[in-house]
Design goal:
This protein is α/β, with parallel strands linked by helices. Helix content is 35%, strand content 17%. It is globular.
Length: 121
Amino acid sequence: MPNKLENLKMSNGVEFPIFGLGTWQAYDSAQLTQALEVALESGYRHIDTAEMYLNENIIGDFLDAKFKSGKFKRSDIFITSKLAPFWHQPDYAEWAIDESLKSLKTDYIDLFLIHNPCPYK
């Protein structure tokens, strides 16, 4: 297996992998699972997703299996997800983050962004 790809250090000291697998429009479970497998085997350690991509559960199942197999630890993989525009209100944001955590089968998300920062009224 190749060494992991280069990281950048963010202002808070967290290492951010330069290369990541974007998963927008990756709806097919078999295809996404194969892409995740190839990406990790190629040295990718960053996976970018969002609730709006409708694939967090596929990614969560894949990573959960990898972690349980002992091949990777959670700390090996940098996960980015995003807050959908219809959850931008403070009362909804915490719920939406919890739902992403459940779907991704993880206790934390490394980077959580505001997706399309133009909330609905």
